[in-house]
Amino acid sequence: MSQMVTDLLTGLNEQQQRAVTTTEGPVLVVAGPGSGKTRVLTHRIAWLIQQMNVHPSQILAVTFTNKAAREMRDRIEKLIGVDATDGLVMGTFHSLGVRILRQNPGRVAEQLQLQPNFVIYDDGDQMELAKTAVKNANLDPKQITPRRMLSRISAAKSVLQTPTDVATEAQSYDDEIVARVYTEYEKLLRAANAVDFDDLLGLPIRLFDQDPGTLARYQQQFRYILVDEYQDTNRVQYVMVSALAEMYGNLFVVGDPDQSIYGWRQADIRNILDFKNDYPSANEIHLEQNYRSTGRIVQAADRVIRDNKDRIDRKMTTVNDDGEMIQLRELADQQHEAQWIVSEIRRIVSAHKVLPEQIAVMYRTTAQSRVLEEAFRTSEFRYQIVGGVRFYERREVRDIMAVLRVLYNPADTVSLLRVIDNLPIGKGFGPAAFETATKWATEQRRPLLDALLTQVPSIANQETGPLPHFSGAGLKGAARIGTAFAILREKKNELTLAEIFDQIVEVMEVRKMFETGTEEDLQRWANVQELRTDLERYDLVPSAEALPAYLEQVALISDADTIKDDNIGSVTLITLHSAKGLEYPAVFIAGAEEGLLPIYRAVEAEAFDESAMEEERRLFYVGITRAQKLLYITYAQSRMTHGQYRAGTISRFIEPIPAESMRRVTREAHRTSAKPREYGRTEPGSFTSRVQQPWGNAPVPKKVLPVIPDFQEGNVVFHPKFGEGTVTSVTARRDNDKEVTVAFKKAEYGTKRLMASLANMDIIS
DNA sequence: TTTATCCCTATTTTT
DNA sequence: TAGGGATAAA
Length: 765
Fold this sequence. Notes:
Helices cover about 45% and strands about 15% of the residues. The chain has about 775 residues and is α/β, with parallel strands linked by helices. The protein has an eight-stranded mixed sheet with strand order 11-12-10-13-14-9-17-18. It has a six-stranded parallel sheet with strand order 3-2-6-7-1-8, sandwiched between helices. The longest helix is centred in the first third of the chain and has 19 residues, at about 175-190. The protein is globular and about 85 Å long. The chain starts with a helix and ends with a strand. The chain binds a DNA duplex (15 and 10 nucleotides) through helix 5, helix 11, helix 28 and helix 29.
């Protein structure tokens, strides 16, 4: 026994040990970045199982991503053995929610009017629903944007407000509109036998309210509850945790108020700040020693976050070496920025300082990833983009998935509409016909798919009630689509998912979608086939279980879950939000500019509300603290936004970083219109740079915007990528820019229309 | 009903 | 820039 005790506590500092061994009662751990919080969580669970003889099934651990859950389980197994975690309940709040709903089908149907084969609607589906809801509420989608309605609805659900609550508490006409749309939205959702992400949290709570016995069973089961990233929980999550922990009170939460970055998703920082009020007997433990980063990085992070006013003063310390200087680099625009990052990675990799998989490039907006990806694609480096256009969000993949979803839940209107609109089989079945089907389904209280199935001769004669009245093309279409689904339905229980896929391709005439033979078509067809490979993972799962399991897995997968650790040789491109909880030896933070980081919206709101700005600062703080050894921050003098170049200013967040910790390289402004720049290379190095005194004494250099030559028809011009060409026409645009049509010498580039301001061309003659 | 074309606007972050 | 939505024509 004593041997094991030492095993689980070895190498932990005093506070960490306390966090591991204080098993009874509420415990709040405030854990700074790199302070060994994951270690504490894993060791604590191991401790509970091994030292306290707690059965794993009595422990609930809530993590921020499924990947984090998997990793923690692995680490615990390494500590106490492979089978020792059997029964341990570990996952995200959302997966816990689904679990509760799926485990109680009878009560869910009875209390929540949700059939066991409900599907989870993702944001694309939700958007469709919101559009319809706005129309059903007789509102103009142009004024009342579905997008905004959706975010209001989500906000309401995050604080457990029903449409009635919103209506009752409405303070303005707009609130009333929200209530109306919300009401319609809920109707549609229930009619489709579907739930949205917020429901996965809210519905279990409603179930608990209406059926205390169910709650009691979970309270009974979960004697020990652990919650990671507690600073990012919202009201519903708070209520769920409090409810579950009520019986035993062994609630262990870990978080860092300085890393709260999901306020916009209704995360409520008060949950962590008020923990001591909620649980007066709580033990509070602070982990303040950073084991992750160099001294310079820790200090920089500390200085940055100190500018936040709404914050508990804490100091992060480290005994690590000062390490390398932080590098701040100014680049001309986003292309140069991307190029520079690639070449700097090349430099540090070839100097054998780091491996590509130890490097991450982080950015504020997903849009930034496109340019970065382009730079990596044309480089020798492999890369993985976390998030961005997700595989399951590709149109063609979703189209096929929609068939699977209808097969599972024939009431899924959004998916059925998707099938009709996007698959060849739906041709001829237009809005009018769809309306007929919807009306019938609503009146008859039948799943929407049945409207089409009634048009299949062999099924129609078993119908007793009234049939929908399709006309013309709609009639033929309904029969065709209905027959296809009937065939699939017939076979679905005997086939594996991959085999069902093959049937779908055949019956739904999927190949017709990719007949033009263009490169794009080939790629999309390849994606569809990749979906088949993905489905094969479920080959060994019994057919009846495979479909729901697969759909659920896809619905709950998160960006961070897609990170591959075995992607050796790949650089990671990731948003700052998704990077939370991760660490890399080398980190690049791109786009440290006003308007981007902090984001424009926060700057706008700053005058009357500083909270958004403070959240931006925390986001930057999260970015900095991901770095172990090397930290690079880049910004561009001008950047393309809304299709136009816009001059940028360095982010205000850079300023507090100590000058002596940072090496700042700016772009030297030496280019003038009188001296045409060198042709050819636009790679980094083609412009001169100089090391400047770090912040403070040197004023920010005056920006020189590139001079745009006055292109005329007949000019011979040089383009850095396409080479020489002749201007065939010039058109002035409203935005003071000019559109220049150039016939390039090299036939492969042909004739292109270029924006004068962007093209980076010079006149040769 | 479908398709082509044009115009407009939006860009924050995600379970 | 790009994607969505409106409009017009077949």
